[in-house]
Design brief:
heterodimer; A: alpha/beta; Rossmann fold; 3 domains; six-stranded mixed β-sheet; 23 helices; B: mainly alpha; MetI-like fold; 14 helices; 0% strand; globular; binds adenosine-5'-triphosphate; binds iron/sulfur cluster; binds magnesium ion
């Protein structure tokens, strides 16, 4: 059926499609070994104004295919066969100058890595000017002026100075806005965007995709959006195309895709996501709220000094929260909001500047170092990148033996027994027992580090972005595993993540951080379904859930935040409410009035006086 | 910022120079070799040996010798390094600073021309081999590299002398001059200004000398270019391959920049590492161009240092090591500054 869809589209009149790719193959010669065909027998048609999401697992050839729509391949690759018809003409047959003029004018491109896409040794302004001069007959001065106005247009402050900056002096968000401005300014008929938002924070991602969507709809440009994120596809795309091993295996409109995925890969990723969600709902909600908390964080702050400067990095300010046995508490926020620092303070990997951390009714600051070593067995952590945290020369067996040696008095046989048990618990095959980290997939590596964390039977684990180095598919599996373990072993989690989708599945309660401050704490339902703090609202509304029921592009008001997150150093921090300047609900009073975390009647706490006084309406979140 | 960086580097360089001087000073004194015997001969009387030892200052304790050399707490009453002299040669008796300033420019001239030409040759060759792997330029550099690397440079030097001097002369073709120095013995060199004979002769309006010196430098420079270009070409080629795969070149192409602009982007990125490599080779050749200097009887600093070592002329050895180290440190500093100027990511 998939093939038929494709056939019928390609067979249709060619002038109707803005892009029509037929039987495309791209080959990479390999010095030792057989050549790689990154793209094989690839067929795709895109109508004017259409938003097509191109998805697939890593390495399936998405980027190579996207690049080839402009007739380009990364050396040493070559386009082996096929046609790339743009508005009816095959660009592989055109002379070089004609294609060159079309690139950047009729076909725009936005790439994955904005900062690496700018020349590292040339001023940003010169590069923008060069692109402008490539398509317009203007002088150097005029092109430079154009670059300045371009930066001003995308909202970069002080464009006269920024235009002289180099790529490494811009944040990724800024660089990406520059690139999209360049790409959109010529109103291309086709825009190709290769993972344009990977690595950006959610609110910035939403700003960016909204801008792209609006401009492209206005100019009725077609867009091919390469992504691995089901959320982006669900919220912005009209059609989904799935690539597998270099070729297209599924092509459906977005609603059909989410309802009845056809290909095995599509079914698997959607299925895993659903299972994780259902299992989460089943497991959650069994927490004894009267039990004494296992962890209490009281008025904790952590300031890092900056070398050669008076000012400090305010990583965490006045954090207050608690965790009950068996509970999973989510810690969410964008980059620089202090999530990781809180996790490290709790484990005493860094010393808090102020405040108390009480674990199992003992203040951990008062435990002497050699006694604390025994304590470590009960306090475990799993990091973002398993390869970084596993010794590359240790087998799984060695990795798991260590905590058993440190924290238990098992006999050698009992240890072997326990290791088998652990492997079984985390779903690693017995054959993995003597494998080295680099011999395992990222998902297995993460399972091994989870096994290490649970080896000493801890009551509490800090999970610091345990899934953000993983593909969406593996992420779903790991979330599933973590929930199973929590149900079986009654472990409490402090789950740190910027990915709201995973937090939503696994957590009982959620803490929202902004610039080192907790702005809202509440149950999962409160925070996700009815966020009150303006920042939580914007964050939730910016987050793209993989759900076509309420697409962001269909909403009348798309709540979002202006600008970027300031870096949390002393002189950057606003005097009053930290959100002042970006908050859609701000009033003059917020500018100078520092905000306190205030408990509301429904049990949650919010750091906003307008919410506390009932000034802000309490309507459900938009999504 | 730049000045602070330079000041810091100069300070480090001074420390390095002091370290190198000390190491050399004690190292040669620890050698199982007797400079006095070398000077007075093996059959000299005890009296003569004693006298020579005292006149060279070798009877003093090593620390006192160091003091004399440095010109601090000197017991000899003669000036030392601190007073701005490198002492006198035990063999010729003349000032080492003078000798070094006579011989050093000869080597500098040779390797400067050779490396400028090598760099100018390697850039376009490397870039076109990198742009079209397997193309004509690439195959040419491959074969060249194979040849140039197959034999040591003295072999190539002798080979070129044999072909371009001997064979050509036999055949009655215009040939290279005999490999006997920098100038035809019937010409007198102009008085030194820079020490670079090609430049001095121009400055003094001696065009006959300019032409003759050019002819004499031709083969030695060519020999060095032939041998050292290979690695530079290879490096430029590798860089070019990497740069052409980079995101920013792909992006520049996808934005529709004209071909020459894209080439300029690539050149910009491939330039800095090639320059660094050239500078490193330059530092190496300061003392490492000896075979070529010897074959063409140019009399450069390399030749001078070998002679000093064979004569166990301690002050001369110390002096050359110090000067060569100084020149290479200046070159590395210059290249770092240039590099930072080209690449804004390098912070001082
Ligand atoms: N320069 C190259 N040399 C050899 N093989 C390559 C090269 N570039 C890409 N490939 C191969 O082509 C295939 C597709 O790569 P491509 O980058 O297009 O995938 P992708 O789907 O965009 O991956 P990702 O999700 O990681 O961005 C992979 O198997 C990759 O190993
Ligand atoms: S205090 Fe004011 S600025 Fe801060 S979140 Fe509330 S409304 Fe917005
Ligand atoms: Mg990719």
């Amino acid at each position: 059926m998939v093939a038929e869809t494709n056939e019928s589209m390609v067979a249709g009149s060619s002038s109707e499609n803005i892009l029509e790719v037929r039987d495309l193959s791209v080959r990479f010669p390999i010095v030792e070994g057989p050549d790689v065909f990154a793209v094989r027998d690839f067929n795709l048609a895109v109508k004017p104004g259409e938003f097509v999401g191109l998805m697939g697992e890593p390495g399936c050839g998405k980027s190579t295919a996207a690049m080839s729509f402009l007739g380009l391949v990364r050396p040493p690759g070559v386009i082996e066969t096929g046609q790339i018809n743009f508005a009816g003409d095959d660009i592989l047959k055109m002379d070089e100058e004609t294609v060159r003029q079309m690139r950047g004018r009729d076909i725009g491109m936005i790439v994955q890595n904005p900062r690496y896409s700018l020349h590292p040794m040339m001023r940003v302004g010169d590069q923008i000017a060069n692109v402008y001069r490539a398509h317009n007959d203007v002088g150097k001065r005029e092109a430079w002026e154009h670059a300045v106005s371009m930066l001003r247009m995308v909202g970069i402050n002080d464009p006269e100075r920024r235009v002289k900056a180099y790529a490494h002096e811009l944040s990724s968000g800024m660089a990406q806005r520059v690139l999209i401005a360049i790409a959109l300014s010529s109103q291309p008929k086709l825009l190709i965007a290769d993972e344009p938002t990977s690595g950006l924070d959610v609110t910035i991602q939403a700003q960016f995709l909204d801008q792209m969507w609006d401009s492209c709809r206005q100019a009725s440009s077609a867009v091919v959006l390469v992504t691995q994120d089901l959320g982006i596809v669900a919220n912005y795309c009209d059609r989904v195309v799935i690539m597998h091993e270099g070729t297209i295996v599924e092509d459906a409109d977005v609603y059909t895709f989410f309802e009845s995925p056809q290909h095995e890969y599509s079914r698997r990723i959607l299925q895993l996501q659903r299972e994780a969600q259902e299992a989460g709902d089943a497991v959650l909600g069994k927490i004894d709220r009267t039990a004494p908390p296992i962890l209490e964080v009281k008025d904790m702050s952590k300031l890092f000094p900056i070398r050669g400067s008076e000012s400090k990095v305010h990583a965490v300010e006045h954090a207050d929260f608690e965790l009950r046995p068996g509970e999973c508490l989510g810690l969410v926020g964008e980059s620089g909001s202090g999530k990781t620092t809180i996790g490290r303070c709790v484990l005493r990997l860094v010393e808090p500047t102020q405040g108390e951390i009480v674990f199992q009714e003992r203040n951990i600051a008062e435990i002497r170092p050699n006694e604390f070593r025994k304590f470590r067995g009960d306090l475990q952590i799993v990091f973002q990148d398993p390869l970084d945290s596993l010794n590359p020369r240790w087998t799984v067996h060695q990795v798991l033996s260590e905590p058993l040696k440190l924290h238990t008095n098992l006999s050698p046989e009992e240890k072997e027994q326990r290791i088998s048990e652990l492997l079984n618990l985390v779903g690693l095959e017995p054959s993995m027992r003597f494998a080295l980290p680099r011999e395992m997939s990222a998902g297995r590596q993460q399972r091994a580090s989870i096994a290490r964390a649970i080896a000493s039977n801890p009551d509490f684990i800090v999970l610091d972005e345990p899934t953000s180095a993983l593909t969406p598919e593996t992420t779903a599996e790991i979330i599933q595993l973590l929930m199973d373990l929590s149900a079986k072993l009654g472990i409490a989690y402090l789950f740190i993540s910027h990915d709201l989708t995973t937090v939503k599945y696994i957590c009982h309660r959620v803490v929202v951080l902004y610039l080192g401050q907790i702005v809202e704490v509440g149950t999962k339902d409160q925070v996700f379904n009815q966020p009150r703090h303006p920042y939580s609202r914007a964050l939730l509304s910016s987050h793209l859930f993989p759900d076509t029921a309420n697409r962001r592009v269909d909403r009348e008001v798309r709540e979002t935040l202006e600008g970027e997150i300031p870096s949390p150093i002393t002189e950057n921090l606003p005097k009053g409410c930290y959100l002042y300047g970006r908050c859609p609900s701000q009033v003059d009073k917020c500018r100078d009035l520092p905000q306190e975390l205030t408990k509301l009647d429904d049990g949650r706490s919010v750091r906003c006086w307008r919410v506390a006084e009932g000034d802000l309406p309490d309507e459900p979140a938009a999504h | 910022m730049v000045w602070r960086f330079i000041a810091k580097r100069v300070a480090i360089a001074l420390l390095q120079l002091i370290g190198i001087s000390l190491v050399v000073f004690f190292l040669i004194r620890g050698l199982d070799a007797d400079p006095v015997a070398r000077i007075v001969g093996l059959n000299a009387t005890e009296e003569a040996v004693k006298q020579a030892t005292e006149s060279l200052g070798l009877h003093e304790h090593q620390l006192q010798q160091l003091g004399n050399y440095l010109g601090i707490f000197s017991s000899s009453g003669k000036p030392g390094i601190v007073q701005g002299t490198l002492g006198e040669s035990w063999v010729t008796g003349s000032s080492i600073l003078e000798e070094v300033t006579r011989f050093l420019p000869i080597t500098l001239e040779l390797i400067t021309y050779a490396l400028i030409i090598a760099f100018l040759l390697a850039m376009p060759l490397g870039m076109s081999s990198g742009t079209r792997p397997g193309g004509a330029a690439d195959r040419f550099t491959f074969v060249w590299g194979l040849f140039a690397g197959s034999q040591p440079e003295f072999w190539w030097g002798l080979m070129f002398v044999f072909v371009f001097f001997f064979v050509f002369q036999q055949a009655g073709w215009p040939s290279a001059p005999a490999p006997l120095g920098r100038l035809n013995p019937f010409l007198t060199a102009p008085e030194s200004i820079t020490g670079f004979i090609m430049i001095d002769s121009l400055l003094r309006g001696r065009f006959d000398v300019w032409i003759d010196a050019g002819k004499h430098l031709m083969l030695p420079v060519f020999t060095l270019v032939f041998v050292v270009s290979g690695p530079i070409v290879k490096m430029v080629r590798q860089n070019m391959l990497r740069v052409l795969r980079s995101d920013y070149i792909l992006y520049a192409r996808s934005a529709g920049l004209p071909r020459q602009k894209v080439a300029r982007y690539a050149l910009r990125a491939a330039l800095a590492p090639a320059m660094t490599l050239t500078a490193i080779i330059y530092g190496f050749l300061l003392g490492g161009a000896v075979p070529v200097e010897l074959i063409y009887s140019l009399g450069g600093i390399g030749e001078y240092s070998i002679r000093s070592i064979l004569n166990l002329d301690f002050p001369a050895i110390q002096g050359t090591v110090l000067v060569i180290a100084m020149v290479s440190l200046v070159i590395y500093l210059a290249i770092d500054i240039l590099h930072a100027f080209l690449d804004p990511r390098i912070a001082f």
